[in-house]
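Lab notebook, bench 4. Still working through the backlog of constructs that have no structural model yet. Next entry is a single chain of 433 residues. Request: give me the structure tokens for it.
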Amino acid sequence: MHPELSFEQAPPIDVPFRFFLTAPLFGIAAGLLLFLVGGDMLASRWTPTALAGTHLLVAGYLLLAMCGALMQFVPVAAGGNIWRPRLVAAWTHPLLIVSVTLLVAAFLTQRSTLFLAAAHGFTLALGVFGIVVSAALWRSPARGPTIVALRIALIGLLVTLALGVTLAIGIARNAGWPLLSLTDVHAAWGLGGWALILLAGVSYLVVPMFQLTPSYPAWLARGLPLMLIMVLLAWSTQYADTARNESLLILLGGLGVSSLFAVETLHLQHRRRRKVSDVTLLFFRTAMLSLLAALLSALVFAMFPELRFDPRIAVWLGVLAIVGVFVSAINGMLYKIVPFLNWLHLQNLCGLQAVPPTMHQMIPAAAMRWQFRVHIAALSLLLAAVWVPALARPAGLLFAVSSAWLGWNLIGAVGVYRRFRNRIRAGAEDCRC
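Model written out:
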């Protein structure tokens, strides 16, 4: 059910790595912001600091990691030839960093010029990225649910971009637009139409490949992105009719569809051929359990109508989705993708003249396990801090430590790659790069 892997089309290793290595920096920044601000940041999703912290994660941490993954995944798994990947990365990567920084500063200072500058930056960065990656995906001869999911996810990214730019312009110009409703639609497309569909599409290949599970059933792999798009369209169109009030029902429907993916992933992990639980599997299991916890939470809140107006409910669901699902899944995938790319490029470099380090030698298992424990502690404290504001500062500090530890582990893996590469080049000048 998966397209054939074309490792010979892999971009230079520095293309995805520049995205991967900088993503944790935004997790550090989000954690430190919470540490400095304290419980007020988690009191409501609408406070300037909450919006700043949210975008440090979704437009910084998540977006950078996912763009880097697509730069690697599209040519290798989809057989799509990305035009001049080094040039695209050299343009997109720094522009995204600057744009996220401007947007966070705009939320914290409420300056119109910063909102407009961030909107232009994201448009330039993701416009180029979207055009180049879309061209590669639509020219690809590969078929299958992974390709369909990647294409739909890219559409979700562009819709999210359009809505985000509209919001930034509306805030900057103090326009009389329905900004709160647009924000709900923007968030839904960003988390559901872009991040979740991309996560599912990548999982169709990565979970069986790295976790040694059976393949996802065809009905789910093909149907999940389409079902999510239908839910998102229903969510978006409800705001066009002010007489409709179906938000809770549509939210439950979207979480229900998403939970199908979570349940099947957990089922496949239970059936894996290798029963040893490595850190990647634990991170991914955390992500799927968080997705199920979001559905359960929404059902509980639906049973008690008086809770619907508590602003902390949205914060709770946001922490579960952003940190519990996406940060956990990305963290786990990076621990597989980075060592694998190291090994792959070193194998191509040295040929039969030397044996490169194994994937398990790239990052010490103990370091990954301890970072996973810190991540779980940070996630638990973040959820508790929604209801007990005194826990917000330690939760933020712990999340910053977890993000820094992830970055340090990835830098260590890159160090292993560089040392072995330099040794090969010094010993055999005719080795291929």
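Notes after review: The chain has a mean pLDDT of 90. DSSP finds twelve helices and no strands in the chain. Flag for follow-up if needed.
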